[in-house]
Amino acid sequence: MERNRETVLQKTEKDRANYEDRLSKGDYYFLGSAHGRMTGTADGARMVLSALLPIIETSKDAKEVQERMVQAGFTFFDDRASEAFFTNRTDSKVLEDRVGQLKQDKQ
To answer: If 74 and its partner were Cys, which of 42, 44, 56, 69 is the partner (CB 3.0–4.6 Å)?
Structure first.
């Protein structure tokens, strides 16, 4: 595929529309330098967050988060992902809202 301004703009718009569509359905993306992009479905987000939240709340550090997530079957939680989640666990309003919704759904 030739890379010119028009093809780059078309690709960018296609990617943007895909992000918007998937996010509107509750799917998730984790964007960062540690892993590039991780993505999953809304059901996957509920599974990951349901396991991750109690682990983050009761772990003393990122290493413990990683170990406990791997024990729970989430093998993509390496040291960098665990550090990012542990360090930023209280900094995301969107994540807080989603967690609140998950907790409410469990009741």
So the answer is: 69
pTM of the entire structure?
A: 0.60
Residue ranges of domains in the chain = 5-106
CB atoms within 10 A of CB 81: 20
Identify the pLDDT of residue 67.
94
- Tens digits of per-residue pLDDT, 5-30? 999 999 999 999 998 998 888 887 77
